[in-house]
Amino acid sequence: MSVVILYGTETGNCELVADAIADVLATEHDPSIYDMSEFAVEDLDPADFLIAVCSTYGEGELPTGAEPFADELDEVNPDLTGLRFALFGLGDTVYGETFNRGGEIIAGMLSSRGATQVGEHARHDNSSAIKPAKLAEEWARGISGLIDPVSVS
């Protein structure tokens, strides 16, 4: 099973987080990292495990780097049944109700097309003292065990 990490960013922090996640997962998996703005929706494969890393921009919108992917999801409207994904969001609690909204939008878009979210939806708070890459490393260790589905007899 391949692990695909997609990041949607405005300032580059999500790319750093994606790298940190990939570093943790590389011991047991062979993750590939792609910018959402350059990833074709047609390349989403239910046989893969998807990790989406997305920030929030403006008043709770997707960052510029995630918009092409979201637009293509709307245009193509693929059936993502069987695709399992985990989400790591970046935001700032200073923005109250729109905190981490970008990640919620991406999760909703994937789920509404049949994909299944697994694990904790990580929500980094830029107002905290915790660096996003550090939180991502801890989160990735927990996600690692969820990547390969366990067969139940």
Give a short synopsis of this structure:
The chain is of the alpha/beta class. It is built from 4 helices and 6 strands. Strand 3 (49-55), helix 2 (67-76) and strand 4 form a beta-alpha-beta unit.
Approximate strand percentage? 15-25%
User: What would you report as the Rg, rounded to the nearest angstrom?
Assistant: 14 Å
Shape: globular
* Poorly predicted tracts of residues: none
Name the average pLDDT.
Answer: 94
End-to-end Cα distance, whole Å, is 20 Å
Helix-strand string? EHEEHEHEEH
Number of strands: 6
Class by SSE composition: alpha/beta
Main beta sheet strand tally, sense and closure: 6 strands, parallel
**Helicity level, as a percent range?**
25-40%
Q: Please report the number of helical segments.
A: 4
